[in-house]
Amino acid sequence: MRSREILQRLLRQPDPVRIFATVQSVTTDGRYRVTDDQGRSMTVDGEAGYLPQVAVIIQLGRIVGTGRRPAVTKIYRV
């Protein structure tokens, strides 16, 4: 490795922690009460209209997306 790459890796900020949670209720416009997989309850911000019981991903106190996996089309040859 070159010294430049080593310095960039050392000085790089850590990635924010992702929390996978489930929406329990909508508190106000744009704020949601969610529960993570360990049972902790928290209030977070979100821009889209999420319904209760939807799995979401949280970073830095904001909902950044849904926790569901994208659909994959499988093709079988017979």
Give Rg in angstroms: 18 Å
Tally the helices: what do you get? 1
Cα end-to-end separation: 49 Å
Strand content: 35-45%
Number of strands: 5
CATH 4th-level superfamily:
Nucleic acid-binding proteins
What is the SS-derived class?
A: mainly beta
Q: Strand order, biggest sheet?
A: 3-2-1-4-5
Low-confidence stretches: none
Domain unit count: 1
**SSE string, helices as H and strands as E:** HEEEEE
- CATH top level class name: Mainly Beta
Q: Which characteristics define this entry?
A:
five-stranded antiparallel sheet; flat; mainly beta; 78 residues
How would you summarize this macromolecular structure in one to three sentences?
With 78 residues, the protein is mainly beta. It contains one helix and five strands.
